[in-house]
Amino acid sequence: TANYKLLTIKKNVTVTIAGTLYGKIDIQEGAQVTFSPVGGIVNIETMTVTGKAGNLTRIKFGSCTSVRVKDNVIIDQWTLVNVDGPKVTFYLGDNNNDSEQFLVKGDNNVIAANVYIQKGSLNVNGNIILMKGWFIAEKVENEGKLVVWNDNKCTSSTDVREFTRTNLSSKEAASQPESPTGLTVTASPNPSSDRFRLQIQSDKTGFVTLKVTDLDGRLIALQPGIDPNSTIQLGSAWRSGVYLVEISQGKEKKMIRLIKL
Asked: Which of 114, 230, 232, 248 ranks highest by number of CB atoms within 10 Å?
């Protein structure tokens, strides 16, 4: 409940932060942090958050909250911010003549909050990112692959901006290998606000097994005995987030990521 100039949340710690005034906050992998400030306002100079594959970091909020940041917010990787939470807005800015930054630099992140930067930039450099909210800044830059920007209240996947292979330069695109023969899987739509349609194709005999996990590694679905050339639908009951789908046939495996809005 106290205020701190420097606050470090160690690995795998679960904590509720009820103070209102902080300097630097450093949140390490696997931490489960709930902000519940008195009056719904928390003031921070800088905040850095990171997670790890199989050890997600979660940032939650006890109620609608204004997060007022003096300098910057850095989200590294494998972090969920306010997923299925209340209305939260990050306000970045101060009275100094400098620029602030909200940076999502790592992979497999979900940010479900509004971001307003009076003077500065919002930068997304990681891959497989879901940004749900209103985003207002002097400059908004996306350099990642499969980054989805979506209104936090939106229910239609037709309103989604999707950045996939179009982010690659012509040289990078030319270096991509051709689709191999054998086992292949495609998903549409992806992202989706409802369900996904998976088309599985193989030039080999033998049943296919489907396995779905979330970013925590928890098993969501397991379906063996699928015909090698078939189409299945799944995901209508899933919550918003990123899911990993593994399709295997014998020793051959294919992995795709699905984003549920």
From this structure: 114
Largest Cα–Cα distance of the chain, in whole Å?
67
Is residue 216 within 8 A of residue 180, CB to CB? The reply is: no
Q: How far apart, in whole angstroms, are the C-alpha atoms of residue 222 and residue 210?
A: 6
pLDDT tens-place string over residues 36-70 = 999 999 999 999 999 998 889 999 999 999 999 99
For the four alpha carbons of 161, 162, 166 and 168, in that order, the dihedral sign comes to positive
CA distance 73 to 69: 8
Residue entry with tokens 């979660």: 58
Q: Are 114 and 95 in contact (CB under 8 A)?
A: no
Place of tokens 């500065």: 120
Check: CB of residue 261 under 8 Å from CB of residue 157. Answer: yes
**pLDDT tens per residue across span 94-147:** 888 889 999 999 999 999 999 999 999 999 998 889 899 999 999 999 998 888
